[in-house]
Design brief:
alpha+beta, Topoisomerase I, Chain A, domain 4, Gyrase A, domain 2, 2 domains, four-stranded antiparallel beta sheet, about 15% strand
């Protein structure tokens, strides 16, 4: 990695994009319960919108169930409503102070739909990586025009940014392939 701040900044943006894309992948359920499937759902609480993980404990008592325990019992109905509105394909069932989300079995069509969703998430990630590359290259071009770096330096930095871009896009592709395999081999 070069010592130039633009290269570092571009690298950080690409890393953040990759982390975001991988987090998005984790929200696609593969028949195995995971708190990440619901923790980001927006819930109306006390006059504002907050993420579900901010108003409840989210656990997975078994492989097929997500259990949500609101810290405030008055949040049960808003949480239940938020889960239904999120349209994640899981119907909440309220049992006392708990909300249980039994995961449905994934049929072949649903798996194919989820693969398409994963492909779209990967494409969004690749687009964001390319935007970071474009921003970095434009910043370098501007510095070269202003005489702050030489043409040779600009070319070298451009190559570094392209290398980072290729690495990030390849990694997103590898994670997509893994997610697709996971979805289709259940």
């Amino acid at each position: 990695m070069s010592s130039h701040p633009i290269i570092s900044d571009t690298h950080v943006k690409m890393q953040q994009t990759m982390e975001h894309t991988l987090h998005e992948f984790s929200s696609i359920h593969t028949g195995k319960a995971s708190p990440s499937m619901v923790e980001g759902i927006s819930v109306e609480a006390y006059g504002s919108h907050v993420r579900l993980k901010e108003v409840a404990a989210i656990t997975t008592p078994d492989l097929r169930t997500i259990q949500i325990q609101p810290w405030d019992k008055s949040m049960i109905v808003p949480i239940e409503r938020a889960i239904q509105m999120a349209n994640i394909g899981i119907n909440p069932s309220v049992n006392g102070g708990l909300i249980r989300l039994p995961l449905p079995d994934l049929n072949r069509e649903r798996r194919q739909e989820l693969v398409k969703v994963a492909h779209q998430m990967a494409e969004d990630g690749r687009i964001s990586v390319r935007h970071a590359r474009r921003d970095g290259l434009e910043a370098l071009k501007k510095l070269q025009k202003e005489g702050e770096i030489s043409e040779d330096e600009q070319k070298r930095y451009d190559k570094e940014i392209q290398t980072e871009t290729d690495k990030a896009i390849k990694e997103i592709g590898e994670h997509l392939a893994h997610k697709e395999k996971e979805l289709l081999s259940l």
